[in-house]
What we know:
2 strands, single chain, alpha+beta
Amino acid sequence: MTRGLDRTPSALKKSIVRTIEQVKLNDYVATREELLEIAKEVFTWVKEGKLNIVIDRVFELEQVRAAPEYLENGGAKGKVLLKL
C-alpha cells in the first residue's frame, strides 16, 4: 500500500533528520491507513532498539513559555517535550 518508501533504519534516520527541517511524515503518505502502517513499523523499531529517540528536556505545562525560548537558543540536543 506504500509508495515504494525505503523503510530501513538508516533511511528512517535520514527521514528524521529531514523532519527536524520541517518535513512531516504526512508529506509521504496518501492515506490514514498508510500512516498507521508506517507508524506501527517505526514504533516496532523503537521497541527493538533499532531507533533511539533522544529526549533533551521535558517542560511542565506551567513552563510553556520557556520551551520555545529553549529551542530558539539552539541548545536542544534531542526532542523537547511539553508535559500535559
